[in-house]
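Schema walk-through. Below, the input block comes first and the output block second. Nothing else is stored per chain. Lengths vary across the set, and this one has 309 residues.
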Amino acid sequence: MIRIFIFILCILSFTPLSHAADSEAESQTYDPSYTGQRNEAADKIREMQKQSQVEKGFIKPTTVQISLVHYPYMEEDQFGLQMSVPDMVSGCYNFSPLEYEAKFVEPYYLDIRVKQYRRIAPEGVNAAAKCTQNNKMSTALMVLDKKDLQGRGTQKIRFSADAGADTYEINLSDERLELIPESMVVFKAANLAGPLKDRLIHAFSSSSLVTLQVPMANPGEDLTPYVVNFAQTMGLSPAPGENLVSWGGNGYATYYFYDKGGNTLSRIGPDGYAEIGVISVNRPYDGPQGRTKTAVDLSVFATRPGTQL
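--- output ---
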């Protein structure tokens, strides 16, 4: 009886594992010593593969800047979600476009995964003599449509990369789009706007909302009375749905108005701004008679919401 029992145990010890167990084992690192320790050979192979990618010029970004743009070739309801890597290089190297994958996930999400970009070395003996010395940046542009987003009911954009992930909430109306970051670990919004400077804003060209800025103002200088008087002469009215003034982290103010006639908005060029006039501001002046005040002319620029000069 004992010998029969031992024989049965021997048969069981050589019985193949179940398919589920095989699948689980395949997902783990092979450990021939059965000690539960990491496989140094496998780790070394992965490190060599990673180094090989680096030697080929491939780079996985650790920071990606997010901005909203609109270019002349885009339609009225379209806008661009621009992703940029702030790693710049001077000289003969070029950057490839930033690789990414995007898909809509029902019912509410747009998932965007940023993968990598490549630093491209110049080719040829005389390449260094012919190359430009300008700074370069790897970018990717995803063109989106307001009506498509509204039809899908998309509520959030989930960005991800090897370095981490962030989610942006979508606030969309017929007049404008707001992207509100819930976190900015890897994907960092550029040119935050709004009263709290906590969101990206894009006003569609059908919107009459316009912002005025005075770049020559002193940081923290409130020019509201001057700007309001100037705006009235331009046929602009304070935006009732907005705080009239919002302050950026750099200490400069942005003033919000409606341009019902469209005259000011029509002057904004492809660069996103237009100089539309001047205001005269009294500034302290130390002269022969002591400190007095003198009028100084400051240029006023019109931009669309979300554009920071």
